[in-house]
Amino acid sequence: MQSPEPRIRVTTPECGSVHELEPPLSKTNMQQPRHPTTHAVKPNQNYGCTSPPLFFSPRTVYTNLLGSLCASSIRYNSSSSNQWKDRQYRDVFVKAAKRDQMKSRAAFKLIELHVKHGIFRPGQTVVDLGFAPGAWSQVAMDRVSPTGRVIGVDILPSQPPPGVSTFQGSMKSAGLRELLKNFLMDPERGKVQDNRYLSDCKSYLDREREVEREEEFEWMPGLGESGVEGPVDVVLSDMLMNTSGIPVRDHAYSIDLCYTAMSFAMDVLRRRGVFVCKVYRGDQEYDLREKLKLLFRSVRCEKPDSSRPESKEVYYVAKWLRANVTKEQVFPEGGY
């Protein structure tokens, strides 16, 4: 009695789920019971695969949905790791980040944008979407202190920089967005309190600022869909999904996250607010730029010197939120 053909273990790259697929029936296995055990596919077996031969010696190999061979627990060539280490060692921004105790070299990208466009001022409220590991929040907190506040949001758990409030969750979640908006409506929540300056009475400067806000609101037309000025001065979006290595897919994901951040900015941003987002270059970048121009009076595209030349990333800096622009106008396709 011949042993039954093994099942093929298939891992879907989209969601990482694992399925067990039975082999096609043949004369040798039609009447035989199929065992639930799975076996690795031999690297040299060709299950209808047209992919080129593998030039490595993986310990275990499985097939993907297309039948091509993919490796698990591959013994990677150490040369690529050495190249990455060498690049990190030679990178002046990596050295500067370590010297200045920044979370990552990405801090210098935001610093360049701030120097060129004047994004931050003391006392502002800043929301940093996709804040992990926290380099942008570090820069923002340093610029808006001591009376400002920074709120970071990320789907991954991460230790925030000192003084930064954080929310863990996806910006695609309506529940998280509502919690974040409620948190932002209280101008004192998230601020670093100093007991030396706490007082129950309002100072003359505080009363003067309130009068200025009331006077400004009298002539200022409604903003967005609510008609009320938001509580946030700056919305930063450094959100990015895990790159797949497929440029079209990575570009589409980054555009979708930019639109999500734009929709949130419409709900919370002040009239004189600033919106900064990162995007991978691609065919849909023109649509993104046109939507930003519809929503803001000033839109600039920047490639900071600290951004690696081979990287496809660029940064859009948008200022001066237009009045009476609805989400239906900006996103006629819906979904945001």
Please summarize what this structure is.
This is rRNA methyltransferase 2, mitochondrial. With 336 residues, this protein is of the alpha/beta class.
- Main beta sheet: 7 strands, mixed
Shape category: globular
| Intertermini distance | 61 Å
CATH architecture of the largest domain: 3-Layer(aba) Sandwich
Rg over C-alpha atoms, rounded to the nearest angstrom? 26 Å
Order of helices and strands: EEEEHHHEHEEHHEHEHEEH
Count of β-strands: 11
Beta-strand proportion: 15-25%
Average pLDDT: 74
CATH topology annotation of the largest domain: Rossmann fold
Strand order of the largest sheet: 7-6-5-8-9-11-10
Q: Report helical residue fraction.
A: 25-40%
Structural class: alpha/beta
Number of helices: 9
Instruction: Give the CATH level 1 class of the largest domain.
Output: Alpha Beta
How would you describe what is shown here?
The protein is an alpha/beta fold and 336 residues long. It has two domains: 1-75, no CATH class; 106-330, Vaccinia Virus protein VP39 (Rossmann fold, 3-Layer(aba) Sandwich). 32% of the residues lie in helices and 19% in strands. The chain is built from nine helices and eleven strands. The chain has helices spanning 78-90, 92-99, 107-117, 135-144, 174-185, 204-219, 247-268, 285-295, 327-330, and strands at residues 8-11, 18-21, 60-63, 69-72, 125-129, 149-154, 165-168, 232-237, 269-280, 296-302, 313-321. It has a seven-stranded mixed β-sheet, sandwiched between helices. A hairpin with a 6-residue loop joins strand 1 (8-11) and strand 2 (18-21). Helix 7 packs parallel to helix 8. The model is unreliable at 2-77, 194-201 and 214-224 (pLDDT under 50).
